[in-house]
């Protein structure tokens, strides 16, 4: 008989837990409540923590009201009836550190179960009772013959009666039955050796029954790596496949249009801008379509990079498109880009003068009638060089003559379908795509969230900016100082923003609160100043009216909801006041703050909150740093990756142990390994087990989703 190959994850997934000894109908149902149906589910149902018996789980450490587990010895057991005829079993337990009273109601059999001298684990919520500690109806586990120093604690619930020891024993049996064939380890040995990773089979055993916390940690690291590697493999496979199968344009990056544009700028590029443009040009010059993310803090100067990308397409006779998430932003971009381009002319041999003016057109759903027809015709015949707009740009009925480069502003997901739509619009080739985001996310998180993109970073602000001084007005006493600052700045000829409290539930309430704030400030704190009000319920014409009054200095203070979060650029505004700042997230506060500090005058940002006794880590982080990347790290630390990953819920299903926060380095290593593996074996033919795992653990939808960022 030939030797059977090691057991794969797919093999494990094919075995129902009912096949394990001790798992009958009842336990099967209980396990199902934790989404454990098969043996793969079981062995990847990891302990939620591990208790080191020698120095944890002691009575002395219990805190009333907080659920905890203690390992104790039974001292005495007595039973009696209560007045309303319930049985009550009283148990005294103790460990080296103290004693505790345990009471069980309506569990008469506890008297027989719990004998003096027995070692048990109790899980419950201690209370104080008659000056001592008491637990009522805790979950009891008999430690029995489990002698390991480290006790794994599995997710438990009161409802389903499934003890941590039962789970442990099922896992133990499952792994014992795998022992003969062993568990397959499809990760190339070069990788596991280089990263000093424990064998996978050993890792499963060690994470469930470690001899030491160190062993547990090594096991966790190995299994977390596997999770991250699988995600990266999906992303890298997709990336490479796109590169292989899609025909792009090898752009002429040495043309003179870009050069003339850059030379005409009133300032030299920052080092970071030069680096980003160089990286982009390398991508543009190759025949594979670019798919790159440009991360840069507010004010870092992304627009110049975007425009030079579009012009690189234009100088080779193609077209460029800039896509913004909203019509207002598209309009602002159109104004800004036209200004930036100035009188730039495009070489045109067909013209008497040898060139013609560059043609930039706006296309949103607000552009209608004859104007729309004209723009559409220009896109189709190639006379429009740069189109700026919303998603309207890739809608049905919009044809480009030859779309060469697309810049997508602000992190709306630009997915597979959009790319396909672009390909259809541009004569079969795929345009080069640059996605810009002003919300930096930490590098390793970007590798997962935007895993099939290359990343360029603008990590340097243009010179001459005076950093924004940020202060926290903690409570009403300090608020007076805020309004005094606003008055002072207005007295100096500057302007201010006041951002009204964020109200999640309803725009209507938010508008009401903005109106109220506007009234109050007009009549009281800022009486005598010229105030304007901006919110989402105004018509576009009203908004534009208010904005232009503010821009031209005819308003001193703009009271607004978060509609000003992006795109508003008034260099003369030097004060930002954010009310109820603790309702905003770090990234949003940072975005809002970025509305000031855009000119040469020193700017300040006041974060106003109700009085806080303790600290407020988010507000304090903003006070401490103006660096978006640093703040992104803090944010990830504070929130965990939960929120970040919520945008990719599905692909997350396989990340049980790995944490983008804790495992930053492992993410980078996994990505590196994924490139290594895929570049040596693009179809994973030499790695059938690994390929099969991707197939098993990710649905098609996941794979699409992961690659969609
Ligand atoms: P972002 O889009 O990254 O928030 P912008 O492209 O709007 O930033 O640029 C912010 C401001 O900085 C603009 O007023 C722009 O003119 C200016 N700017 C951009 N690059 C430079 C530079 N290299 N030197 C000086 N000012 C710059
Ligand atoms: Mg290219």
Automatic annotation (TrEMBL):
Keywords from the UniProt entry: ATP-binding, DNA damage, DNA recombination, DNA repair, DNA-binding, Helicase, Hydrolase, Isomerase, Nucleotide-binding
GO molecular function: 3'-5' DNA helicase activity; ATP binding; ATP hydrolysis activity; DNA binding
PROSITE patterns associated with the record: HELICASE_ATP_BIND_1 (PS51192), HELICASE_CTER (PS51194)
Pfam family name, one: DEAD
Superkingdom of origin organism: Bacteria
Keyword tRNA-binding: no
GO term, biological process aspect, one: DNA recombination
InterPro entries: ATP-dep_DNA_helicase_RecG, DEAD/DEAH_box_helicase_dom, Helicase_ATP-bd, Helicase_C-like, NA-bd_OB-fold, P-loop_NTPase, RecG/Mfd, RecG_dom3_C
UniProt-listed PANTHER family: ATP-DEPENDENT DNA HELICASE HOMOLOG RECG, CHLOROPLASTIC
Family affiliation: Belongs to the helicase family. RecG subfamily.
Name of the protein in question: ATP-dependent DNA helicase RecG
Species, as recorded: Ilumatobacter fluminis
Native organism taxonomy: Bacteria, Bacillati, Actinomycetota, Acidimicrobiia, Acidimicrobiales
């Amino acid at each position: 008989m030939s030797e059977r190959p090691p057991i794969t994850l797919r093999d494990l997934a094919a075995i129902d837990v009912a096949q394990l000894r001790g798992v009958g109908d009842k336990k099967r149902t209980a396990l199902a409540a934790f989404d454990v149906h098969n043996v793969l589910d079981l062995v990847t149902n990891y302990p939620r923590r591990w208790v080191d018996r020698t120095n944890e789980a002691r009575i002395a450490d219990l805190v009333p009201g907080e659920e905890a587990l203690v390992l104790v010895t039974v001292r005495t057991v007595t039973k009696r009836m209560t007045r309303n005829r319930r049985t009550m079993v009283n148990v005294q337990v103790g460990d080296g550190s103290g004693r505790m009273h345990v009471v069980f109601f309506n569990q008469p059999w506890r008297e027989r179960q719990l004998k003096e001298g027995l070692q048990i684990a109790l899980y419950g919520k201690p209370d104080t009772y008659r000056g001592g500690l008491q637990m009522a109806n805790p979950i009891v586990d008999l430690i029995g013959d489990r002698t390991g120093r480290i006790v794994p604690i599995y997710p438990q619930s009161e409802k389903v009666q499934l003890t941590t020891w039962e789970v442990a024993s099922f896992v133990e049996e499952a792994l014992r039955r795998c022992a003969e064939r062993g568990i397959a380890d499809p990760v190339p040995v070069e990788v596991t050796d280089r990263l000093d990773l424990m064998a996978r089979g050993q890792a499963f055993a060690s994470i469930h029954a470690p001899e030491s916390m160190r062993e547990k940690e090594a096991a966790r690291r190995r299994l977390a790596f596997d999770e991250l590697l699988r995600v990266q493999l999906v992303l890298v496979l997709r990336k490479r496949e796109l590169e292989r199968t899609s025909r792009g344009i090898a752009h002429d990056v040495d043309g003179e249009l870009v050069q003339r544009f850059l030379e005409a700028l009133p300032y030299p590029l920052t080092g970071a801008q030069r680096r980003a443009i160089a990286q982009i040009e390398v991508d543009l010059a190759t025949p594979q379509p670019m798919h790159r993310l440009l991360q840069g803090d507010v004010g870092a100067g992304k627009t110049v990079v975007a425009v030079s990308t579009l012009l690189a397409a234009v100088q080779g006779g193609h077209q460029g498109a800039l896509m913004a998430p909203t019509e207002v932003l598209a309009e602002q971009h159109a104004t800004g880009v036209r200004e930036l381009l100035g009188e730039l002319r495009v070489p045109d041999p067909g013209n008497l003068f040898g060139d013609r003016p560059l043609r930039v057109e706006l296309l949103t759903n607000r552009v209608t009638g004859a104007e729309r027809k004209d723009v559409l015709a220009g896109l189709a015949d190639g006379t429009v060089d740069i189109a700026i707009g919303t998603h309207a740009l890739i809608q049905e009925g919009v044809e480009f003559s030859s779309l060469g480069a697309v810049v997508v502003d602000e992190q709306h997901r630009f997915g597979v379908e959009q790319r396909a739509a672009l390909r259809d619009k541009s004569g079969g080739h795929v345009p080069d795509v640059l996605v810009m985001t002003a919300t930096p996310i930490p590098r390793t998180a970007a590798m997962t969230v935007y895993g099939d993109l290359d990343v360029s970073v603008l990590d340097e602000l243009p010179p001459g900016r005076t950093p924004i001084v940020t202060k926290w007005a903690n409570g009403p006493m300090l608020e007076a100082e805020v309004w005094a600052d606003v008055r002072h700045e207005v007295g100096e000829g500057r302007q201010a923003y006041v951002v009204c409290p964020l109200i999640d539930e309803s725009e209507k309430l938010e508008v009401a609160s903005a109106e109220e704030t506007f009234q109050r400030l007009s009549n009281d704190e800022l009486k005598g100043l010229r105030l304007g009000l901006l919110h989402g319920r105004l018509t576009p014409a009203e908004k534009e009216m208010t904005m232009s009054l503010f821009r031209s200095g005819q308003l001193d203070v703009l009271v607004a909801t978060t509609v000003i979060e992006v795109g508003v650029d008034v260099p003369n505004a030097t004060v930002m006041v954010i009310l109820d700042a603790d309702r905003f997230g770090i990234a949003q506060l940072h975005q809002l703050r970025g509305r000031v500090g855009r000119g040469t005058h020193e700017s300040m940002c006041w974060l106003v909150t109700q009085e806080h006794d303790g600290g407020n880590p988010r507000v304090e982080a903003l006070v401490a740093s103006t660096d978006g990347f640093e703040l992104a790290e803090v944010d990830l630390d504070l929130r965990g990756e939960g929120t970040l990953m919520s945008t990719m819920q599905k692909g997350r299903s396989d990340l049980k142990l790995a944490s983008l926060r804790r495992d930053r380095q492992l993410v980078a290593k996994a990505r590196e390994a994924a490139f290594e593996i895929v570049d040596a074996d693009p179809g994973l033919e030499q790695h059938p087990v690994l390929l099969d795992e991707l197939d098993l653990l990710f649905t098609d939808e996941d794979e699409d989703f992961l690659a969609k960022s």
